[in-house]
Amino acid sequence: MGLLTRRAAPALLTALLLAPAGCGYGSQAKDNDTAPIAAGAQKIDGLDSVRIGYFANLTHATALIGNRQGFFQKALGATKARYATFNAGPSAIEALNAGSLDIGWIGPSPAINGYTKSGGTNLRIIGGAASGGVKLVVNPEKIKTPADVKGKKIATPQLGNTQDVAFLHWAARQGWQVDAASGKGEVTVVRSDNKVTPDAYKSHSIDGAWVPEPTASKIVALGGKVLLDEKTLWPGGTFVITNIVVSQKFLARHPRVVEAVLKASVATNQWIEDHPARARQAANRQLATDAGKALPRHILDPAWQSIDFTDDPLAATLRTEAAHAARAGLLQRPDLSGIYDLTLLNKVLKAAGQRPVDDANLGVRQPPR
């Protein structure tokens, strides 16, 4: 499973949590009926529930599976895990800011935007979840080489989201001028919800898309061709695509609840590595619940294979992505100091006999004791 092969104590945390025992922003989060609270379980810090958000995307499979298999609920005891799904990072940040979301799985660019625009007051990145799983898929009749992308219409999920920033940066590297806000220029950037992008491709209203899985594989199934896998643009082929964030207020008030969610996330990633076929099926079943439809195997399998699941937030690549957003004109000199607090994650990893992860000197400064 790529980034997870370094684990030193693979069974410890999974065994702990496996012992016997979608709605959008503005809607009510729904209870997880698949994970009943165990008899005799206690609430953590007396908290009734914790609100967890994620996307119905395979790049958020840690959250999908953690929900489906009951990892989060097991770790939280009698504190109820409540879930909400989102279509894009900016809306998840809005929910976090509004207090309707406590912990979320989101991409790096929305986390960067939310943190910098709030002056560093609204969130912390507390863990990693996934790397990779992003591709530029094009109409092979119109685009055969990267140079052919010039003058074409390319979809990204949303203005300022992670894939939007990546495509704008790549286009700039080709020497093409594009206005980031309007998407107009030598390449036209069409901001399109991942749900409708395959239909837009099918109707020929776009010529390609820079999108995460499974949207990329859906377009391939319609006759598209993978022109570029974003992995090839990063040293070692790794870059952050999904992080875990928490409201700073919630982290300060309920660190034991946050630690429990992180423990469940680490255990889920280990379970994904140990049971790849079952994990793929579990993610797909939760997609069916959240998005209303499971993925057919010819889309699910290639999409799954392109994603690496990791507890490491790959902080150095977040710094690079922030620089890309600044060059694209979407941010002005972002100050990311303090965006990470990996204290609880490293505590969980240490307990499991695993190595600590690094915050690339972007961690919150802990007060002297």
From TrEMBL:
Coarse class of the protein's main subcellular location: membrane
Any GO molecular function: ATPase-coupled transmembrane transporter activity
Signal peptide start and end residues: 1-29
Pfam families, per the entry: NMT1_2 (PF13379)
Swiss-Prot/TrEMBL keywords: Cell inner membrane, Cell membrane, Membrane, Signal, Transport
InterPro entries: ABC_SsuA_sub-bd, NrtA/CpmA_ABC-bd_dom
Superkingdom field: Bacteria
GO cellular component terms given for this protein: periplasmic space; plasma membrane
Compartments where located: Cell inner membrane; Periplasm
SUPFAM superfamilies membership: Periplasmic binding protein-like II
Assigned protein family: Belongs to the bacterial solute-binding protein SsuA/TauA family.
Descriptive protein name: Sulfate ABC transporter substrate-binding protein
